[in-house]
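Quick one, T. Sequence first:
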Amino acid sequence: MKGDPLAGALALALTGQVLDIGSVEHLGDELAAAGYPPERLADLRHAAQEAERPWPFTVPLEVRRAVGFARFDAALAQARANLGLTGLVAARPAERPLNRDERRLVEDRPPHW
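Structure tokens:
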């Protein structure tokens, strides 16, 4: 990798591919230019979830050690937030009807209603 090692490590975590990314500040733009716009990254995350594989993708220990563990984790959290990949939105809602007990709880009302 010729670019920033931290940016390359983030790209590997987000895409699963080794990409030459110049800087963390322009990570989103450079990923999009490399064919990984936020929508594709969201699709990669969803596919990994469906297949029960880890996402973000695994970054080798040596790479994380070289850029600094805390620095990498903080930058990855910030990159995920910037790209809309925080995981705070349910990506896999339940696709089953409520069972009898769940329906009873949903229909239950407090006594003062």
